[in-house]
Write a structure and sequence with these properties.
single chain; 31% helix; Beta-Lactamase; 11 helices; five-stranded antiparallel beta sheet; alpha+beta; Rad_response_metalloprotease; IrrE N-terminal-like domain-containing protein
């Protein structure tokens, strides 16, 4: 399964991760919220390393990484200009540490075909939940969903990074959609979604109707017919969109299929004649028949079955390893370096 599909499960895992923090370090949540890196530097079971941002973060949504093979394990945080962004990254990488060292949290990863994607989604939800707690989400946002201006206000009235605000706002989208952070050229810096494939980090959205118009003004704007461009060159279905500037260098875009906060009524988009939505397919991996109800995988262009299988599943399985002790086939993240024994058996 991919990250956009963990609508309810990732927040539940995040709550369990927060409980683990409270058990391991009682009374530290407020300190983590106020200055994440300063608090994490005090923890003896991990170390924090500020390093130049890598050009490609792989599947990771932030400019950082988790090194489990060091002693103690290392939370690598990219040297971003924004202290808030560093804090979000540090908490995200702490999420990896918790899930890879806590038995109960780690066991939940095995419930998913794509355990790495679930782990990533939970890390985002965990970091955002600490930085923007429930009592900071306005009631009208909970009821009608977020607008772009709501996300900007969330950033300005909290200590959270823009990325954390995107994650928290996406949680309250009424239907399928995404909350996207872009730079002044229209390049995606971060995206959080609910029920749809978000634009990839680093992708150029400057020619889409919403972002193209937003780059020409400093006012909040909206478009009833916009879309997301994927790296494959394909487009999403038509979306409603609103964009607002969050300081001079960052643009927030909220995109949704229907039920948006800034319109009294938004009819669901009819799918085009060529769309595969609503058609039935048979999964080549598990043999299940399924109805196509979500956009296809951005990487391979194939729809996913109910178990999350697509054309990428076979490619991912080639990198999986079999633990020589328990004989379970696990993702590489469950092993230390090149070890043939998983962490649970070590």
């Amino acid at each position: 399964m991919t990250r956009h599909r963990f609508i309810e499960e990732a927040p539940r895992q995040a709550e369990a991760m927060i409980s683990a923090v409270e058990r391991l370090h009682p009374g530290t949540l407020e300190a983590l919220r106020a200055d994440p890196l300063a608090e994490l530097h005090r923890w003896t079971e991990i170390q924090v390393s500020l390093e130049a941002e890598a050009g490609d973060g792989g599947r990771c949504s932030v400019a950082g990484s988790y090194r489990s093979d060091s002693d103690p394990p290392t939370l690598v945080v990219g040297e971003a200009r924004s202290l808030r962004r560093r804090g979000f990254t540090g908490l995200h990488e702490l999420g990896h540490h918790l899930q890879q060292t806590d038995t109960a949290l780690g066991q939940r990863l095995f419930d998913w075909e794509d355990s790495e994607a679930f782990e990533e989604a939970a890390c985002d939800a965990f970091a955002a939940r600490i930085l923007v707690p429930d009592d900071q989400i306005p009631e009208d946002v909970r009821r009608r969903g977020p607008s772009a201006d709501d996300v900007v206000t969330m950033f300005r009235t909290s200590q959270a990074s823009r990325e954390a605000c995107c994650v928290r706002a996406a949680r309250y989208l009424a239907g399928g959609g995404a909350v996207v952070l872009l730079d002044t050229t229209g390049e995606v810096l971060f995206a959080a979604s609910r029920g749809m494939i978000p634009p990839a980090r680093g992708s150029d959205q400057s020619r889409t109707p919403l972002v193209s118009a937003a780059l020409r003004t400093r006012a909040t704007i909206q478009r009833d017919k916009t879309y997301v461009v994927y790296r494959s060159g394909g487009h999403s279905d038509l979306l409603y969109g609103q964009a607002a500037w969050c300081d001079e260098d960052y643009l927030i875009a909220v995109l949704a299929e229907d039920s948006v906060a800034w319109r009294a009524f938004t009819a669901p988009r009819p799918y085009t004649q060529s769309s595969r939505f609503g058609s039935w397919r048979e999964c080549e991996t598990c043999g299940d028949s399924f109805k196509v109800t979500e956009p296809a995988c951005e990487e391979c262009g194939e729809p996913r079955c109910g178990q999350g299988h697509c054309g990428c599943t076979t490619a991912r399985s080639r990198s999986d390893r079999t633990c020589e002790r328990c004989s379970m086939v696990l993702a590489p993240s469950r092993f230390e370096g090149t070890s043939t024994t998983c962490r649970d058996c070590s």
